[in-house]
Amino acid sequence: MGNQKLYKGSLQTIILKLLETNDKMYGYEITQKVKELTKGELKITEGALYPALHKLEADGLLDVEVAKVGNRLRKYYKLTESGSKETANKLAEMQEFLKTMQHLVNPKFSLE
Amino acid sequence: MGNQKLYKGSLQTIILKLLETNDKMYGYEITQKVKELTKGELKITEGALYPALHKLEADGLLDVEVAKVGNRLRKYYKLTESGSKETANKLAEMQEFLKTMQHLVNPKFSLE
DNA sequence: TCTTATACATTAGATTCTTATGTATATATT
DNA sequence: AATATATACATAAGAATCTAATGTATAAGA
Fold this sequence. Notes:
The structure is a homodimer of 112-residue chains. With 112 residues, the first copy, chain A, is of the alpha+beta class. The first copy, chain A, has helices at 11-22, 27-37, 46-58, 81-105, and strands spanning 24-26, 62-69, 72-79. Chain A has a three-stranded antiparallel beta sheet. The longest helix of chain A has 25 residues, at 81-105. The first copy, chain A, is globular and about 55 Å long. Chain A binds a DNA duplex (30 and 30 nucleotides) through helix 2, helix 3 and strand 3. Chains A, B: Residues 15-88 form the Transcription regulator PadR N-terminal domain.
């Protein structure tokens, strides 16, 4: 860690990608999944996650479905049709960004 | 473009890397070099660049040397010793970030 | 002459995050 | 039984980093 600030701007894309892969997820599950996939390198905070989910929902990219598990509340999010398209766009932009940065910081081992 | 916001947080690293490669550069030159290297994908604005350079200098990572070319002013920046070390750190963090993001958004084509 | 390029700089406002705080239930530990 | 940790949601203040706009001034090109 220590490079958390590099992730600034990529949270929406991460959420959308996870929902594309896993069909439906709830907030807490997303934080745990990201921690697991990044081996603890990236920890999504609630202060970042929940506003992001609310914004994606407000923008019509996600649908929400409330479920009760035991006595506890869960909000399952899934991609809308529009959300699936936007996910493809954002993933393409991310790939381009990663390629460009790779090239910038290390021209020798550029990906192409 | 359209993915400009993904670059948020990486400007310092980009500047340091350029100065590692090119020994000394002035602000305007940096904006042009980045535009060239990224084929126009990333355009560094003055409002981002100059405050960033001033901060790196204030933090002791850069030395500045004013030059007069014709009747025009140029401020050449170069890495201090401390700046060289920090560049190595930031580049390592960047590589880790890029690897992690690559893994997150496209596990199939992970870099390792 | 007028536009574009070069070269510096600051400021208002937007976005996106971290840190702190709050509420509540469930499980594990002592 | 008491306490700590995990699960699960949420908001709000403040920090950091950027974009877009504006400003000053010289040089070069049409």
